[in-house]
Design brief:
alpha+beta, 265 residues, 11 strands
Length: 265
């Protein structure tokens, strides 16, 4: 399978055998990291193929990348996490190790957003780990994390922040819980322009517009209307396909909400 590692048996090795072979090749202190470790700790890493297996090894280790194994030497070996007998880097390290290997924004946004939303990693913990590590390959992660720390919890919300910056409008409150005068819960919109009482809802790729959620969306919008709050809803796909048009709609909605409040006196 690898230099010094033999598979006793015929046929194509299973994924587990590939992982075990990589760890044998890397040595006693080697840890699985990157996408393989992310998936084994509960993330999906949607849309990204996990072909190679990334290993962390101590800086003094002499093994090099070969075949399907990507070796990264480090002076910051983390305390291992063992899942189903596989020694791997903790999730926060595995996520950022994988992000450093990406060269475009989309997979970085997707993995960091999932790490926060599904993996329940605190954005500040991700930031501290990023600052403690190497600067190599970290520029995209730093850029996306700035938005995540400010409140974005999905890829769509990160894209929404990028569009908001085009508008010249005041910054909304991101993921802010809105309540009425009696302290009754109304909603937690993606963006809330409190001054003009306008909410901006970006429906998540995974969790909105499913049939079972449709009634809840209608109930939420009814609560906004009853509280005198205007709503702008945007499909996630349009954030990528029509960013300028969405920015125009957001500006128009803000100005309309502002005019409505002036008329109300």
């Amino acid at each position: 399978m690898l230099p010094g590692v033999l598979l006793l048996g015929s046929g194509k090795p299973t994924r587990r055998q590939l992982v075990d072979g990589a760890l044998l090749y890397g040595g006693a202190q080697a840890l699985v990291t990157g996408l393989e470790a992310c998936r084994r700790q509960g993330l999906r890493g949607s849309g990204v193929a996990a072909n190679g297996i990334q290993l962390l090894v101590p800086a003094s280790c002499k093994v090099s990348s070969t075949e399907y194994v990507i070796v990264e030497r480090t002076t910051r070996m983390p305390r291992p996490v063992v899942v189903d007998g596989v020694a791997m880097a903790p999730l926060v390290r595995a996520v950022l190790d994988q992000c450093r290997r990406y060269t475009t924004h989309d997979p970085v946004r997707a993995l960091l957003a999932e790490a926060v939303q599904r993996g329940r990693l605190n954005p500040e913990v991700l930031t501290r780990e990023l600052e403690a590590g190497s600067d190599r390959g970290s520029a995209l992660s730093r850029e996306v994390l700035r938005d995540v720390v400010r409140g974005a919890r999905s890829v769509a919300e990160v894209d929404a922040m990028a569009i908001w910056r085009r508008t010249g409008l005041p910054e909304p409150l991101w993921n802010h819980e809105v309540r009425d005068a009696a302290c009754r819960y109304i909603g937690t919109p993606d963006g809330y322009f409190k001054k003009v009482r306008l909410v901006w809802e970006i429906d998540s790729y995974d969790f909105h517009f499913a049939k079972e959620d449709y009634a809840r969306t209608l109930d939420r919008n009814a609560r906004y209307a009853a509280a005198g709050i205007a709503v702008l809803q945007t499909l996630p796909s349009r954030l990528r396909s029509e960013p300028e048009e969405v920015a125009k709609e957001l500006r128009a909605a803000y100005w309309a909400a502002e005019a409505r409040l002036r008329r109300a006196g």
